[in-house]
Amino acid sequence: MEDQRDQACKVFVHGVEASVQNRNIQSVFEKCGEVVDVFNSGKGFAFVTFSSAGDAADAIEEMDGKMLFGRRVSVKQARQRREDRDREERANEMINEAFQRVLNDPPSMWGPVNSGNWWLHPPGTMPP
After folding, report:
1. For the CA atoms of the chain, what is the radius of gyration?
2. Most buried of the four, 9, 60, 72, 106, by CB within 10 Å?
3. In the 8-state DSSP scheme, what is residue 119?
4. Residues 36 and 51 sit within 8 Å (Cβ to Cβ)
């Protein structure tokens, strides 16, 4: 999962033809800043990742609504997919619940109380 800083450096480019190669997209967007990664999904959109959030913001301002490769593109801040956000929230909830259980009822190195562990009892004091 990406952290928030990485997400702020990524832009979503809608309206890109499937035939446009990543290096061509990169060369256009490098005018806005240092491009770290380009991914053309082949489904009409691409992602461009910049080295800084400032470069990404500059690209959004400069490139949104421009004609690129014969098509008008929409350039927006990339967002995490909804199902990824939901999965991450559920995982965090599970971790928090487990953490609270450990805080409220810490595990014992001796096992459960009255577990019948004979080695914990002195000779002759074994419970029935």
Report:
1. 27
2. 9
3. G
4. yes
What's the pTM value of the predicted model, to 2 decimals?
A: 0.61
pLDDT confidence band for 114 (50 / 70 / 90): low
Helix, strand, coil percentages in the chain from 3-state DSSP, rounded to 5: 40, 20, 40
Instruction: State the amino acid at position 76 in one-letter form.
Output: K
**Dist CA 95 CA 92 (whole Å):** 5
Each residue's pLDDT tens digit, 64-95: 999 998 999 999 999 877 777 778 888 888 88
Q: Decide: 55 and 32 in contact? Cβ < 8 Å.
A: yes
Residue 71 token pair: 């098509």
What DSSP string runs through 13-28? EES--TTS-HHHHHHH
- Would you say 44 and 69 are in contact if contact means Cβ atoms under 8 Å apart? no
Q: Is the pLDDT of residue 117 over 80?
A: no
